[in-house]
Amino acid sequence: MIKLIATDLDGTLLRPDLSVSARTRAALDATRAAGIHVAPVTARQPRGVRRVAEAAGFTDYALCGNGAHGVHLGTGETLFEAHVTVAAQRALAEVLAARVPGVLFLSVRERGEVYVAQEGYAAIAQFNDHKREPFEMGLHSLDDVLAAPSLKFIVRHATLTPRELLAEVRALNLGGFAVTHSGAPFLEVLAEGVSKAWGLALLCGRLGVEREEVLAFGDAPNDAEMLAWTGCGVAVANAHPEALEAADEVTLSNAEDGVAAMIERLTGQSSAG
């Protein structure tokens, strides 16, 4: 029996234009009406989740920052937070900057509301990267970026892809943090041991839900741990290889309302068209 549906947003639940289709909304509403929890589990911060919350009907718990931050969207209650330590991010930044000239860093702080970006970062950023205007991130020295713990510590380069950067980070053989990427043009560094699966396990503990009672959806490398952890992990057809490999099943693409199609199938709902 499914008691909780955990779903990624970008590339999974949302259509390519970042909208929530009428079919998807109907499937989510019917699920909630049946007493099943629905939780967005996303790389976005709460501000970014709230941009789609009304369209999707999200009013309960959300897991943000790749599972590092659990928050109740209705009350603003913080369920948990996990931060990358100053020591860990400083060690990474100093060694990686020496190895990869031109690498830039950004610190996400204070429940995901404050972004402290190294000078030069905003110049290569776009609104959709972080669901906020680049000018809001400031022009800070690297020391300022590294001065406080981060809910998420961003690593970016103007020309290297996230996969190329990931290979460079792994070659450093450093500890004290976790690193992933979500399909966005940067790496996302988290506290050691943190992932979407880690955050989802904490939420399930709070709600009294067993992992076998969770249905999860995703598309990106940062979804792989969650898809493998849950009772049934479903990748959308447009998913990255890491997510496809971790999933138990594959549904239609996000452009074809794959999440809604699978929910309808597993819960006996009829399609809203």
From TrEMBL:
Keywords of this entry: Hydrolase
GO MF term set: hydrolase activity
Xref: CDD domains: HAD_Pase
InterPro entries on file: Cof (IPR000150), HAD-like_sf (IPR036412), HAD-SF_hydro_IIB (IPR006379), HAD_sf (IPR023214)
UniProt-listed PANTHER family: HAD SUPERFAMILY HYDROLASE-LIKE, TYPE 3, PHOSPHOSERINE PHOSPHATASE
Protein name: Hydrolase
